[in-house]
Amino acid sequence: MAETEENIEHPSHKRTCMCRPLNIPRTKPTPEVLNLLKDLQLTDDNLKQYMKLLMTDIRKGLARATHPTSIVKCYPTYIQDLPTGRETGKYLALDLGGTNFRVLVIELEKNHFEMTSRTFVIPQDKMVGSGKDLFDHVAACLHVFIKEQKLEQECLPLGFTYSFPLVQEALNKGIIERWTKGFKCDDVLGRDVVQLLQDSLVRRGIQKNVKIQAVINDTAGTLMSCAWKSPYCRIGLIVGTGTNACYVEKLTNAEMFNGPNKGSGVVLINCEWGAFGDDGTLNFIRTPEDIQIDETSINPGKQIHEKMISGMYMGELVRLLILRCVKARLLFGGRDSVDLNQKDKFQTKYVSEIEAQKPGNHDRCKAILENLGMQNLSDQDLQNVRFICECVSRRAAHMCAAGLSTLIKKTEEKRITIGIDGSVYRHHPYFHYLMMEKMKVLVKPGVVFDLMLSEDGSGRGAALTAASASSSIY
Ligand code: ADP
Ligand code: MG
């Protein structure tokens, strides 16, 4: 499959929309529902406060003295050079770190690339079992792919997109710090993820086909893949199963960086901002439903920021807020259903589907709720449910906007492009516009920014990183 920019439809590709965002619909709920959901609406003052707190935590993460106790870790990666656009060659890539696990082969040519990928399922028991089982499964899938693509006679460099918190010690060495997003293989905490994968490749007998060159996370991959196209790209953002961001920082500020200075004077910082709020910092904007989601998760107390924003939790937040309104007898005449009371039954993609309908058209909303066992829905009920969806997606987009505005300020750049990936940003009809709208309020006047949809950062970004690693080795 050859991918080009043209075949992906997204608002960030329509440059004219960047300056004049379309009217973002705002559904009118009943005054009682509006009042009951007040705590979901973040004011600009809330967001400015959030920005101050995030900036403080980023500085803590960067400084050697405060890093150990910092919540936002700001790990230095070992990426010091952004792509030149001249990278060439054939690479394998793995993308592990959320809902889908993918294996890819990418051929980079000047200003052009070809990519073939296959998605594999990670069974639930492997997500929460032993690390050995998980990485053996990864190696088995890679083996299937190598056979399918007839790569048995080759030895290809591999870029490993591993999107969980990692303490990197080299481009091809990273210590597993924490599992997130529904994964929990705690027996391998503290172990080198590259070595774990290498051991599995050996057990599988495919070590001769693969040379693991680099491990990066998806935010770094996103930044790299956008930087390949845009010389102004300095920030990468993910809003998918989880959320995280990375940015280009001056080496002098990255006190935790231990590697050799390769000359660029900068290093890519993996913020791990999903953990923002784990020390209570975000309590001033958390709702009872945020607390419930955290308490019933497999990692209570962890990834508080992520749990307020990302795709793994957004639908569940909507479900819990629907129940809040039902309990107050402001929705469905106080009725509920078995399904509506079941965790995760309201999927995040429903939020996009409901909001994608023209205002006033509630067909999809009605079908979704009927599917969840609700009947005799009034128009006002449907309108209120759409309003709940809008509250949740708007809050998430505004928090991302505030996070990015903080990073833009930190880079001190006057013109900057932000590469973004993840299904929430990609598929929600207004996420892009909601972010743009709020960033225009929060970013210092005179600073020019744009948001660019990344075309497969985890694949191409990993290949580009493997390419730069290969070129510095050979
Ligand atoms: P990952 O982050 O795991 O690499 P994705 O970027 O595809 O993968 O994000 C997956 C998340 O996106 C899931 O939590 C899913 O609920 C959510 N998602 C899937 N489809 C949509 C959609 N149409 N709108 C919003 N969110 C979606
Ligand atoms: Mg991904």
UniProtKB/TrEMBL annotation:
Q: What class of enzyme is it?
A: transferase
Q: Tell me the protein's name.
A: Phosphotransferase
Under the heading CDD domains, the entry gives: ASKHA_NBD_HK_meta
Task: Return the GO cellular component terms, semicolon-separated.
Answer: cytosol; mitochondrion
The answer on whether this UniProt entry bears the keyword Nucleotide-binding reads yes
Alphabetically sorted, this entry's keywords are: ATP-binding, Glycolysis, Kinase, Nucleotide-binding, Transferase
The answer, when asked if Nucleotide-binding is one of the entry's keywords, is yes
